[in-house]
Write a structure and sequence with these properties.
Length: 214
C-alpha cells in the first residue's frame, strides 16, 4: 500500500491541511509543536483506529479527514470520522491489530528498542508468510546467543570479547616487563663500557710500571 494524499479536516490543533506524497521516501520536518506528531497520529488513527484512551492529541467528535492510497493498482479512500474508520481498506491493513500496526509501520523511538513484537502472534500471522519470514524468531534468538557468546552480558563474564581483553592485558604486562628488562640491560651495557675503559687505563698504567721497573 502507498499513501498518495493526506487530507486533515480537523484533528487536534491541525485544521484544513492537505499533503501530497510523492513516490518513494517522504520526510516531514519542522520545529517543535509544528504538527509532526499530530499528523503521524492522524495517519495511525485513520488507517488502523485504536480504542486506547490516553492518546495525543486528545480525541474529540470533530475529528475528520481522509487518506487516499493505492494497493495493487486499486485506489482506496479511507475516511476518519471521530474514532471510526469508513470506506474500504487494503487487505494488508484490514483487521490488523492497532498495536501491531503502531509497532511495525508507525513506530516511535521506544519501539526501536522493543523486539518482543517480532515474537507475537500478530507478526507471525501478518508477515511470516513471506518466504523465509518464518525464520525471523530463530534468527533473533541466534543473534542474541551470538551476542552473549561473543560480547557477554556482564562485565568480566565468560565471552570471546573478555577472553581477548584478558589476553591483551596479559600481553601488555609482558611488554612492560620486557621493556623494564631492556632498560636494565642498557644500564648494564653502559656500565660494561665504563669498566672496559677503566681496564684499558689499568693495562696502560701496568705497562708503564713494568718499563720503569726495567
Amino acid at each position: 500500500m502507498r499513501i498518495q494524499r493526506i487530507s486533515v479536516g480537523s484533528f487536534g490543533r491541525m485544521i484544513g491541511r492537505e499533503f501530497e506524497l510523492s513516490p518513494g521516501f517522504n520526510i516531514f520536518y519542522g520545529p517543535n509543536e509544528s504538527g509532526k506528531t499530530t499528523l503521524m497520529e492522524f495517519v495511525r488513527t485513520t488507517l488502523v483506529p485504536t480504542n486506547k484512551k490516553k492518546l495525543y492529541p486528545e480525541r474529540n467528535k470533530s475529528n475528520n479527514g481522509l487518506i487516499e492510497a493505492v494497493e495493487g493498482g486499486e485506489p482506496y479512500v479511507i475516511q476518519l470520522d471521530y474514532r471510526q474508520r469508513k470506506g474500504a481498506v487494503p487487505e494488508c491493513i484490514a483487521g490488523m491489530d492497532p498495536e501491531l500496526f503502531r509497532s511495525i509501520h508507525a513506530m516511535s523511538y521506544s519501539d526501536l528498542d522493543n523486539d518482543s513484537i517480532f515474537e507475537s502472534n500478530g507478526i507471525i500471522s501478518n508477515y511470516l508468510s513471506i518466504p523465509g519470514g518464518e525464520a525471523v524468531p530463530a534468527v533473533l534468538k541466534a543473534i542474541e546467543s551470538d551476542i552473549t557468546e561473543q560480547v557477554g552480558t556482564v562485565p568480566r563474564g565468560s565471552s570471546q570479547l573478555h577472553t581477548y581483553q584478558s589476553s591483551i592485558d596479559s600481553t601488555r604486562e609482558k611488554v612492560l616487563e620486557l621493556r623494564a628488562k631492556t632498560e636494565s640491560y642498557s644500564d648494564i651495557m653502559v656500565e660494561k663500557d665504563s669498566l672496559n675503559e677503566r681496564l684499558n687505563e689499568l693495562k696502560e698504567y701496568n705497562e708503564k710500571a713494568r718499563a720503569v721497573n726495567a
